[in-house]
Please model this.
Amino acid sequence: MLKLSSKFTSLLTKRRHFSFSSEPNTGNVQSTDLRNQFNSKLVCLETKQQDDNDNDNNNTQTRHGRDEFTSDVEKIFRILKKFHSRVPKLELALLHSGVVLRPGLSERVINRCGDAGNLGYKYYTWVSKQPNYSHSYDVYKALIKSLSKMRQFGAVWALIEEMRKQKPELISPELFVVLMRRFASARMVKKAIEVLDEMPKYGCEPDEYAFGCLLDALCKNGSAKEAAKLFEDMRVKFEPSLKHFTSLLYGWCKEGKLMEAKHVLVQMKEAGFEPDIVVYNNLLSGYAQAGKMNDAFELLKEMRMKGCEPNANSYTVLIQGLCRLEKMEEAMRVFVEMERRECEADVVTYTTLISGFCKWGKIDRGYEILDSMIQRGCMPNQLTYLHIMLEHEKKEELEECVELIEKMRKIGCVPDLSIYNVVIRLACKLGEVKEAVDVWNEMEASGFSAGIDSFVVMIHGFLGQGCLVEACEYFKEMVGRGLLSAPQYGLLKELLNSLLRAEKLELAKDVWSGILTKGCELNVYAWTIWIHSLFSKKYVKEACSYCLDMMDADVMPQPDTFAKLMRGLKKLYNRQLAAEITEKVRKMAAERQITFKMYKRRGERDLKEKVKEKKDGRKRRARRRQWGGSRGNDKIL
Model:
């Protein structure tokens, strides 16, 4: 392990660090867009073009304003990270930072905070108080994007309400489109549709653009059925367009419902629209995703017959479908056919082939494709290298990952957060925790703001190596940056259980109090995780105390939580505490028009079912071990 560590360190410190970028954010945006395109079966709808244009505009501004803004943005970001939990010191540090407030600075600071919407909001709050300063449209839009990405929708609506009162002229449909897309990605369909209904309240009449974006967002996020119903309901108000039909067809294909997709195609033709290359590519993607490659090839022939010549995207979809079925030689034949028809392969096509070879353990062929694309002048991107690195990660080849990053840097391909996460995860897995921290520090020094994925990787790595104190520090930093939301409750549960198993009760309490003091909006599931973790480790009184705090925060415990605590207190003969909890639960049940008797009965039932499930699980595992042992003995005999 020492040998690996020394070589890793030497590679890491070559030129002091392995990833230096003059434009880190630009590289990150590019790779994210390509990864989204790859994950969505390589089919881009025309309605996505607006998002890409926004990204291009942001990147252009970053490039032109780099010399003027970068040092100030980094200085402010360092201050925000250092003092985010101490508001008076934060405001004092920002005031004496020497940074001159000017147009274009604030939106860059908020964008620099990345997923850490809490940091961006604290800067926004401070800068709002400064004399002779006024927020621009770009500042509001950047903050709305950041907060809605972290699902802090209450803060977003409050911000839009503030705009309505102070700067109504800055409210535009684009702000509501951002909110629709975030609600849709969170699968909050009703909320996304409500945004369309709320727009007139803020002086924005819903237009065809906003409706098309809502339809597109729902279809891209697995809500094609709801999108189809909305489309039918709104046909009178918004005239159907080719983009609307394309979005619906894409949504059904993505969900694998080809019959519904064909029905949309019929509706499209009846409305007087002829399928274009995007529509055909979506259908190709649907067939490929369902493994119906014969139908996909027939559709390709039909395209040619109707004069719609397949493009690089068409062939790439076929290649991806074949790669998924481990038909790599057939995929290569499609690639050769593509070249024979003088259809130039792009970076996504090459990345698809490399991904396929790496997925099926043929990493050498992947490297051959990589060398070939570079020789032909097609530069690989971060996603191309990511697939190779993931294969190296499977084989626990840390040195190869670092060397690959060196190769990326040589051709000007800047590592992004996904690349860093792979190296950090593998370093932690191999016990190279110090090196993982070095990579983390390099990542942030290179201009990247660690997102939730990076924190999850790092915290899991520390927990896996038993470094509980370090895991807590990174978790508290994640909370401080405003990155804790419902999807990360699994990580919270793992951390708390690890601390309590190691009998570090005070450290676990410190983590929980840190969450509360940072103003995180905790729902009943978060409280349940903490209370059940305490109870399972025999900390019954502490669990009851936090249950009372939970009810003081106007969060009613789940029925099984109440039943579990009552059983624990009965064993401790603590009638006073049991009576106090029961009385509070009675009041909360009455306020919510729930009968206490039914609540209590449901809790007992749920608890019995969970105990039964646990026992059944143990029996099944015991039987598997027994059968496995019998088979092993038979083999020995």
User: Anything to note?
Assistant: The chain has a mean pLDDT of 83. Residues 12 and 18 are 6 Å apart (CA to CA). The radius of gyration is 28 Å. Residues 596-636 form the longest helix (41 residues).
